[in-house]
TrEMBL record:
It comes from Polistes dominula. PROSITE patterns: LRR. It comes from the Eukaryota. InterPro entries: Leu-rich_rpt, LRMDA, LRR_dom_sf. This is Leucine-rich repeat-containing protein C10orf11-like. The gene is LOC107067736.
Length: 231
């Protein structure tokens, strides 16, 4: 494994990969960058300065990032982010990243879906691929969750992200979207804002009211399970 002082950056998406070395910090066009397994708490400033405008894919898995993620806003063209095996928790808030389409946050410390998923949607409204496996908030047979728990979890997340096509290890179906909308109806202003932009003052008012009065309630496990969920 290479150290930070001598990392090799390779554009893995190019037919003719370009290689540069970080010890001289000379900028070259790089689309993919990996700092996995580096025991990092924060992103080195020189990397942000030299590569923030070109990076599309960033892998910072197996580190110690938690709530200090504002540096991600400097990667303006980021479309893919891997944060597996870090310390992301319920109170981690990401910066606004409208171009991000893929987010991997498997095996972190996310215990509760709400308000984490709500905040995640506000930061990354255009996500297409999301994976939360290995977190307590993502129930499965691996962490003691039942199949019904898994269905609730899956449909709740789908209800928040209108562009999502793949969640965890499965593609999202049309039937799942319909069931998610039926189970987790959204407030009027919120659903309206998804189809038409709202003035900043109304967005602020809606956010304040939502935080005060609205918290989605997952269906009770004791309720009838006659609904046909499609996985």
């Amino acid at each position: 494994m290479t150290s930070l002082g001598k990392l090799i950056f390779i554009d893995i998406h190019s037919r003719n990969p370009k290689v540069s070395f970080s010890n001289d910090l000379q900028t070259s066009y790089v689309e993919s960058l990996s700092f996995a397994f580096q025991n990092l708490f924060h992103m080195p400033f020189d990397i942000i300065e030299n590569y923030g405008n070109t990076i599309h894919t960033l892998d910072i898995s197996h580190n110690k990032f938690c709530r200090n993620l504002q540096f991600l806003s400097e990667f303006e063209n980021l479309t893919s982010l891997n944060l597996d095996y870090n310390n992301i928790d319920d109170f981690t808030v990401f910066p606004y990243m409208p171009k991000l389409q893929l987010l991997w946050i498997n095996h972190n410390k996310i215990d509760q879906l709400y308000p984490f998923i709500k905040n995640l949607y506000e930061s990354m409204p255009n996500l297409k691929y999301l994976s939360l496996m290995g977190n307590k908030a993502a129930p499965s047979y691996l962490n003691g969750g039942t199949f019904y728990d898994y269905l609730q979890y899956r449909l709740f997340i789908i209800s928040w992200f209108p562009h999502l096509v793949h969640l965890d290890d499965r593609t999202i179906t049309v039937e799942q979207y319909e069931e998610a909308k039926r189970l987790f109806k959204r407030p009027f202003l919120e659903s309206l804002s998804e189809n038409a932009p709202l003035p900043d003052c109304l967005k602020y008012l809606h956010k304040k009211l939502a935080n005060m009065f609205f918290k989605p309630i997952l269906p009770n496990k004791q309720q009838s399970r006659g609904t046909n969920f499609v996985i």
